[in-house]
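User: hey, got a sec? need K Homology domain-containing protein folded
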Amino acid sequence: DTGARVDIRQDCDPCQVHISGDRESVDKALEAVKDLRRRAKDGEDAEDAEDVVETLDCPRHCVGAIIGKGGTTVRKIEKDTGARVDIRQDCDPCQVHISGDRESVDKALEAVKDLRRRAKDGEDAEDAEDVVETLDCPRHCVGAIIGKGGTTVRKIVKSTGAKIKIRQDCDPCVAVVRGPRESVDKALEVVKGMMEEIPAPDLRTDLGTGPGADLRKSLESKKSSPDTKRKSQGTGSASAEKKSKRMKRLT
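Assistant: Yep! Here you go:
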């Protein structure tokens, strides 16, 4: 199953197991042999030797999600599936070795794969049973939902029991709500209610407010300045004088 060559020397004490092959094959065979040796030391039945062993590569940053706080998650997998789960962290990527009967191993394998996927997506291991809902959130509503220093969103989290994360790297922003179904529904209702009460920004721009105000003030200032008035009056007087001279020449 591993592709490695396994030779056992029994002419020495203790006996020696020599494993050869490529790195991956040797690692798999080594884990299988270690598991069998452990079972023999623990006095487990020989029929357990026919158990299957599956190996799954696991990025180092995902290991914590599979082990869980104090090993709670991996123990739960073993209890629920009946398979044994061992995690090797002395290699990169780390490796998860799952052993047991075929059915138990398949169940544990699926559970570990799901946790690994969640960890890659940035989800917490303890949230494996939680539901996740997303809600589009206009950018002008984000500040009110988060609150000063995050006070408002923390109150929502505390009162509903759901976790809320606001993604602001997209437009519209997105509120990601996670937790038990009931908690998520409550949090969604609160956030939706807040967004409905927040008025949309006034996008109208006139010369009284906004960027146009500066332009209007600048134009009025130039128009009313003494220099501008004198230039205007001087131009009008010169024009009248030229017109009078033309009339005299005509007569």
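Quick note: The chain has three domains: 1-50, 55-126, 131-197. Let me know if you need anything else on K Homology domain-containing protein.
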